[in-house]
Design goal:
There is one protein chain. The protein is of the alpha+beta class. Among the domains are: about 60 residues, Dna Ligase, domain 1 (2-Layer Sandwich); about 60 residues, no CATH class. It is built from eleven helices and 17 strands. It is globular.
């Protein structure tokens, strides 16, 4: 039986600061928002957050995860599997091309990028130039070329205080043909569905030159009419911000996979809240040395994929983070929570 689509009724526009502030208020703290910064306070005790990045995360943790060479070294220390790869100076394009030829199928991404900007997946020698160009638009120092992990699906493991609290599977944007609508019309229909999700309504599927190349590799363009049941790949990247689809899978992920994420978090000293991205053949199966790789990690994970997943049961990660911050502040909530925000989220959802 196919999993049902979550439909969020009367949900406000997604705002990380507002949802976190609500949870702090329920725990008896005062909150103030100035620009991107949220401050929660109780007397002299204060906590500040930039989205999900808290003041309890060490600067060194941020810098390690921002620098992909340092991050990969940390993954090695943690004893987890990660992709084979090499960094290249911007002037070493031809050396990078040779590495793509060696790998056959590669990932090309900015050395210090985030949120999927400038990342190209399934890069072959034929598409290398376009991938390099995309990376150059987001890079400041080096470009990383990694060997593709084929046949797997990507999931974001959210870790708070070195404990995995939520896992969301992310699927690259795709279409299913009906034999009637064009590719352009199918994209419009998908974007209409996304408009009913508070987290995704401002993150539509947008077609750029790179995505046109992906369509062209399937002998399609925006005016093509895919036959009924045909799956059309729009992109190889799974970021929700660029059209990816999300499914909350926390309850079914194998415990050993969660322990991989927790091991990474413990290795990055001073990481309070982190998002660990893992590619695996099957996230519900026991982790082995060859059935997964850790892609990367960051200190400011997207909470919306857990709070408002397209499919699966939402997890109130805002509440978990607020409660953790209070512990780090040396406080117990000034008053008991008024209500579970998870219940509020659940009441917004209908399934189709």
């Amino acid at each position: 039986m196919p999993i049902a689509l979550n439909w969020y009724e009367d949900a406000e526009e997604f705002d990380t600061k507002k949802l976190l502030a609500l949870e702090f208020q329920k725990l008896g703290l005062q909150t103030r928002v100035r620009g991107p910064l949220l401050t929660a306070s109780a007397g002299r005790e204060k906590c500040q957050l930039l989205e999900a990045e808290t003041c309890f995360t060490a600067l060194t943790a941020f810098r390690i995860l921002k620098d992909k060479r340092l991050a990969r070294a940390a993954f090695k220390r943690a004893g987890v599997s990660f992709a084979e790869g090499k960094t290249f100076k911007l002037s070493n394009k031809e050396s990078a091309r040779e590495k793509v030829i060696e790998f056959g199928n590669a990932v090309v991404k900015p050395f210090d990028g985030n949120k999927g900007r400038g990342v190209s997946v399934n890069v072959t020698p034929a598409t290398f130039d376009e991938a390099w160009k995309a990376a150059l638009q987001s890079v400041t120092t080096h470009i990383l070329v990694e060997k593709c992990f084929t046949g797997g699906s990507e999931a974001r493991y959210l870790v708070v205080d070195s404990q995995c609290v939520a896992v969301a599977n992310r699927v690259p944007p795709f279409l299913i043909g009906n034999g009637i609508d064009t590719v352009s019309q199918l994209i419009a229909a998908k974007n209409n569905i996304r408009s009913n999700n508070p987290h995704l309504r401002d993150r539509p599927i947008i077609i750029d030159e790179y995505r046109k190349l992906i369509l062209s590799s399937q002998k399609l363009d925006l005016s093509s009419i895919p036959e009924r049941g045909r799956k059309v790949t729009v992109d190889w990247k799974s970021n929700a911000s660029t059209g990816g689809e999300t499914t909350e899978i926390t309850d079914i992920v194998h415990p050993s996979m969660k322990r991989i994420a927790e091991r990474v978090a413990r290795t990055i000293q001073g990481l309070h809240v982190g998002g660990i991205d893992i590619l695996a053949n099957d996230h519900t199966s026991k982790a082995t040395a060859s059935n997964y790789i850790v892609i990367e990690a960051n200190t400011r994970p997207d909470l919306g994929i857990h709070l408002f997943p397209m499919y699966g049961r939402p997890v109130n990660v805002s509440k978990i983070i607020a409660e953790s911050c209070i512990k780090h502040m040396g406080l117990v909530g000034a008053r008991p929570p008024v209500a579970e925000t998870y219940g509020r989220l659940e009441s917004m959802i209908t399934v189709t």
